[in-house]
Amino acid sequence: MVAKGQRSTPLAAAAGLAGLALATLATGGFLVLGPVTSSDGCSSSSAQAIALGPPGTGRTVGATEYGGPGDPSSGIVGSSGVNLLAEPDSYAELGGYTFATADALGGLPYGTPLRITWARHSVIAYKHDIGLGGGLIDGRYPRVIDLWWELAARLGIPYEHGEWSGPVRLARTPVTGAGPTLGQTPPADLPGASRACLSLVDAVVPVVSGERARLLPSGLAAAPAGAPPSVKQVIAAGNQIVGKPYVYGGGHGLPLSEIAPSYDCSSSVDHLLYGAKLLPVASTPTSGELESFGRAGIGRWITLYASPAHVFMYVAGLRWDTWNAAGPGDGSPGIGWHPLVRNADGFVARHPVGL
């Protein structure tokens, strides 16, 4: 399902924000405003978007609600494939037809938590859906988010036959665990780059110092601060589907811009590669077909090991695989990041050009 914004005009909510760099809230928080950036960290042909800042900062934006008895056309299944009645704390990022093009908040990965505040009420909600968007709310607030009607009810928002609109405040949630100690939050400054020129992926992927990715207690991966933006995008894509069920053939036949209900080894690797646009959206090569991906040999940042029967990959030193093939201490038993090196006999090593 695409959220209610699909029935509205294409997203124009952030028009007129191009000249702004920072907006200060009454609470003293900041939000970076700027264009959507591409993998090189600067240029973009996308529409203007709001890029959320580090945890604890926020901005008042325009919101609408969707679903419920007054909006039956929205249905109950999100674009991610989840039943929204089973995930009532859900929101939809606006801006497009796919998770890749819904970028009014910077193109947040599936499941991204946000703190949403309305009046005296505040909740944590998760991105499970998308929508096109529309014009300004109350003539001043960019419309960037749809609230699932049950989430809106938790905030105390009146259900106006599915037609409510108004301002809410959005803020990133802090990284849990030892994130601040490990340096997993986005850096305040990077040498040689202004914040207006940073890739938006830096705002949605935890980072650690150095050039090696790190497995976090949550099962997600933190990207190395010194990695190219495309490597961080691959890690961000992996974090989207960590823990997804393994089903042979799962994920194939769907555009790579969609989050599939399940994955197998090759479709999960395809999803990560698409995160950095290293594969076209309509391509889901099998493990055997990935034997000819990119260039032969081990890469500087990313290496695939492919055979007709299986494929896995290393991204900045952290292995992406569908099982804990290296034995005890190799992370979760399923699809996700694994910290140990496994046997690669019988596999062909390939790497993306330039990586």
**Which term fits the overall shape?**
elongated
- Rg, please? 20 Å
The average pLDDT score comes to 78
Beta-strand proportion = 25-35%
Residue share in helix? under 10%
Helix/strand order: EEEEEEEEHEHEEEHHEEEEEE
Q: Which spans have pLDDT < 50 for at least 5 consecutive residues?
A: 6-48, 175-203
Structural class: mainly beta
Number of strands: 18
Q: What this model shows, in words?
A:
The protein is mainly beta. The protein has four helices and 18 strands. The strands form four sheets. Strands 4-8-5-7-6-9 form a six-stranded mixed beta barrel. A hairpin with a 5-residue loop joins strand 1 (22-24) and strand 2. The longest helix is centred in the middle third of the chain and has 13 residues, at 229-241. It is elongated. Mean pLDDT is 78; it is low at 6-48 and 175-203.
